[in-house]
């Protein structure tokens, strides 16, 4: 019996494997057309200054609005985009879109008097795009953006990659773009490697803020102390409760982001609920 069962399992496995391969290829083919069909969208989530509660900027997240599949979240297609290297074109689309939107907001609102940054996620695979630096610089220039107000977020897997990564990060840093290390603490990069890279900001992963096992929040406190003593600015992600907010404030985290403040939303929604009342402060 067990032999039979084993055989069946193999059959199921091959069947699933083919079905999955087919679905994957179909998804990949549709994703290839997504830019041309104008199906990609950016959503923006506010970041607030932890001391004043004022809007400090936004982080842009990509979504894919597909007629047949509905609205797909980044986790549903970014891994595939990375494997297939479609991320190179998609990544450029994200940069261009974010710069254009930022320029539009600069014209509509009085952002000059505040430090309003726009954060964009960059995949480690985009280091393979050797034209990325020039592309970004051209977008910054044509949209008349102050490079310091653009923040690029890289995950720790970027640190493992080649000299290409260090080279590109140094070039970006030289023109004033801010560099952030995303999901800090959950990767496996060694702390001694960190200073080789020109990061300005450490984004503390939400698992540290939300971990109920971190009794007395010793781990979170140690990470914050570490980051600040090395001169990094800090952003805490995944703030969902008042308690988490207060804790991060006590630990001198610089910026906060999470559902407690707001969810990711369209550019229009952000305008309505945040940018038209730039003086909207959270009680901190
Ligand atoms: P990330 O950059 O670390 O983004 C944080 C994720 O947490 C986002 O999920 C965000 O919507 C979600 N989030 C925000 N506030 C809260 C909260 O209070 N609680 C919880 N539980 N979650 C919160 P999302 O939009 O699904 O993005 C997932 C990941 O996909 C991102 O992680 C980023 O690594 C990647 N990604 C998103 N947009 C892009 C993009 O344009 N390009 C690239 N290369 N990657 C992207
Ligand atoms: Mg991010
Ligand atoms: Mg993150
Ligand atoms: Mg992430």
Structure characteristics:
284 residues; alpha/beta; 8-stranded mixed β-barrel; 11 helices; 9 strands; disordered C terminus; binds ligand C2E; binds magnesium ion
Contiguous uncertain segments of 5+ residues:
280-284
- The geometry reads as globular
- In sequence order, what are the helices and strands, one letter per element? HEEEHHEHEHHEHEHHEHEH
First-to-last CA distance: 65 Å
Structural class: alpha/beta
Task: Please estimate the helix content.
Answer: 40-55%
The set of bound ligands, ions and cofactors reads:
ligand C2E, magnesium ion
Question: Kindly state the mean pLDDT as a whole number?
Answer: 90
Number of helices: 11
Strands in their spatial order, largest beta sheet: 1-2-4-5-6-7-8-9
Radius of gyration: 21 Å
Total strands: 9
What share of residues are in beta strands? 15-25%
Would you kindly provide a written description of the structure presented here, covering whatever features stand out?
- It comes from Marinomonas fungiae.
- This is Diguanylate cyclase (GGDEF) domain.
- Residues 24-278 form the EAL domain.
- With 284 residues, this protein is of the alpha/beta class.
- It has helices spanning 2-34, 74-84, 87-108, 132-142, 157-160, 163-174, 191-194, 206-210, 218-229, 242-250, 267-273; strands at 40-49, 55-66, 70-72, 117-121, 150-155, 178-184, 201-204, 233-236, 255-256.
- It has an 8-stranded mixed β-barrel.
- α7 links the parallel β6 (178-184) and β7.
- α3 runs parallel beside α4.
- The longest helix has 33 residues, at 2-34.
- The N and C termini lie far apart (65 Å).
- Bound molecules: ligand C2E and magnesium ion (MG) (3 copies).
């Amino acid at each position: 019996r067990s032999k039979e069962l084993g055989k069946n399992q193999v059959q199921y496995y091959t069947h699933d494997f083919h079905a999955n391969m087919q679905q994957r290829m179909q998804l990949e083919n549709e994703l290839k057309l997504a830019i041309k069909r104008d199906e990609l969208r950016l959503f923006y989530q506010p970041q607030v200054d932890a001391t004043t509660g004022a809007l400090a900027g936004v982080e842009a997240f990509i979504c894919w609005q597909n007629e047949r599949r509905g609205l797909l979240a980044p986790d549903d297609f970014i891994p595939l985009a990375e494997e297939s290297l479609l991320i190179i074109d998609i990544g450029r689309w994200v940069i261009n879109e974010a710069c254009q939107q930022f320029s539009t907001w600069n014209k509509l609102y009085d952002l000059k008097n505040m430090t309003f940054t726009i954060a964009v996620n960059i995949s480690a695979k985009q280091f393979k795009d050797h034209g990325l630096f020039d592309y970004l610089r051209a977008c910054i220039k044509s949209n008349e953006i102050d490079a310091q107000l653009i923040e690029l977020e890289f995950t720790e897997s970027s640190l493992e990659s080649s000299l290409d990564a260090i080279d590109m990060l140094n070039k970006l840093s030289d023109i004033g773009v801010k560099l952030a290390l995303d999901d800090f603490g959950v990767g496996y990069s060694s702390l001694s490697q960190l200073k080789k890279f020109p990061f300005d900001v450490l984004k503390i992963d939400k698992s540290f803020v939300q971990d109920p096992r971190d009794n007395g929040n010793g781990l979170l406190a140690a990470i914050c102390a570490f980051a600040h003593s090395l001169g990094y600015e800090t952003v805490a992600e995944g703030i969902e409760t008042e308690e988490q907010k207060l804790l991060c404030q006590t630990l001198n985290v610089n910026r906060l982001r999470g559902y407690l403040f707001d969810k990711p939303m369209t550019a229009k929604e952000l305008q309505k609920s945040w940018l038209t009342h730039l003086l909207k402060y959270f009680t901190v």
